[in-house]
């Protein structure tokens, strides 16, 4: 067992999981959350998909999403300020609501992170085709699959080798890409001559049903903001750095999304291409603004950002998978770490294989790359919504048990649940409702398949508990031990 001395108070914090202890600074921890959010992803793909539903209310949709996820972040931090482990929300919810809720969360998050990786790999392939198209290479099924293989293969290698290398790569690539997009946004505003758009500011032609429908993919723009919590064993001073990363990454990304979506809607006004019909919105904006070379730079930045998000999703999903393997929910070989790299190499490898197979089969069957992106991104959002709602329920329950519950904690929990319930209803739809219209096919079938997946996960847990009750007891003991060893550390 390895032991580190904390620089600020010389407190010993042993590593219990086999992962490399206390090796990541705050900048590296927040890099995990920011790369999983992938701010570049929203203006390059997501904003156009949200616009298809919300129209000129796209910026307001992102305001609602940011507000709701800040409340969810506050509920997450009720746990993150008190304990840390690679189990993330899976461990937090298990402690707050019991093993069944924790395992359901674990299943939901594994699906969420892996499907996020699938979606962003499709985004990587889309922008790869855009770039190669500029030099005469025509898009094809084989090319898309090849680009997906390059993306997941590279991400697997980095995640397998070194978590510090992973975070450094993610932070640097995302910062460069976001910088280019901000510069283009300023050019677009200068070209338009004014930042005032009365149609957007007065929500002219927008409707509440469209804004609600847009919330599903708007929430997907932020998913993974909590993934810094999966670095509980690897972060320095985790009770301080992880909660800060959760909130700061959400607020900064949210402001970026609100402003850039507003600028993009403004930039496409009067153009020959509709915002939601563009395969590469920022490239088209660069053409409209007379800086076409910017489109090439942003396409390169977008590909790098999609790669960084794939890497972040692989890191986070593998650590949930790894933690559940350690607890006996999956075969214990999943819970093993690499002897030299100190990474969850088996969990990383399995997650990477699954993440490659599904989009490959989907595209090979004839689906367009951006359609596949929408499919996988929507399903991934369901997994995150389950986790976000359960953590918002678990927070006040846990605080009450600890005799630390305040009225403001209850308010934050209710607000977190309420905001997340809106995209849940939006994704399911209510027959005859203008506010919650039933999604078109194939999106209307996705909630049923996701529910079946969760039922299978819950059934597996019940079988496991009946056959091996000691496994559940050991799981609870391990989560409790993780919490106890942080009890006397400084609270933030």
Automatic annotation (TrEMBL):
Record domain Amino acid permease/ SLC12A: where: 29-461
GO biological process, any: transmembrane transport
Subcellular location: Membrane
Membrane topology term: Multi-pass membrane protein
Sequence intervals crossing the membrane: 49-76, 97-121, 141-160, 167-188, 208-225, 245-263, 293-314, 346-367, 373-398, 410-430, 450-466
Keyword field contains Cell membrane: no
Keyword Nucleotide-binding: no
Alphabetized InterPro entries for the sequence: AA-permease/SLC12A_dom, APC_superfamily
Keyword list, A-Z: Membrane, Transmembrane, Transmembrane helix
GO cellular component: membrane
Gene3D superfamilies the UniProt entry points to: Amino acid/polyamine transporter I
Protein name stated in the entry: Amino acid permease
Species name: Stenomitos frigidus ULC18
Lineage: Bacteria, Bacillati, Cyanobacteriota, Cyanophyceae, Leptolyngbyales
